[in-house]
From TrEMBL:
This is HTH LytTR-type domain-containing protein. It holds the Pfam family LytTR. It comes from Roseburia faecis. GO terms for molecular function: DNA binding. Residues 1-86 form the HTH LytTR-type domain.
């Protein structure tokens, strides 16, 4: 599962379905809410918030999900994303 912010709307991708949210929530607000509890969601891009349980691989400048979907990670954000993902994996192994 991941959330994408596009054209001032949030799109929730769940397995094979997509759901659009037309409310006034921003991706920043969703990130705060979703990371408060267990911290399973990772901001990989200004437009993408990804559930770390759904990450298959993290490699140079992209995330591959178990669904096969690949999402970009900006070069300047990659080191932080990699560190946060590794910390999460170590806590959950």
């Amino acid at each position: 599962m991941y959330i994408e912010s596009k054209a001032h709307q949030l799109f929730f991708y769940l397995c094979d379905d997509t759901c659009r949210c037309m409310g006034k929530r921003t991706l920043d607000e969703m990130q705060r809410e979703l990371t408060e509890d267990e911290g399973r969601f990772l901001r990989i891009h200004k437009s993408f918030l990804v559930n770390m349980n759904d990450i298959s691989t993290l490699k140079r400048y992209q995330v591959q999900l178990f669904s096969g979907k690949q999402l970009p990670i900006p070069r300047e954000r990659y080191a932080v994303v990699e560190m946060q993902y590794e910390e999460w994996k170590n806590r959950n192994d």
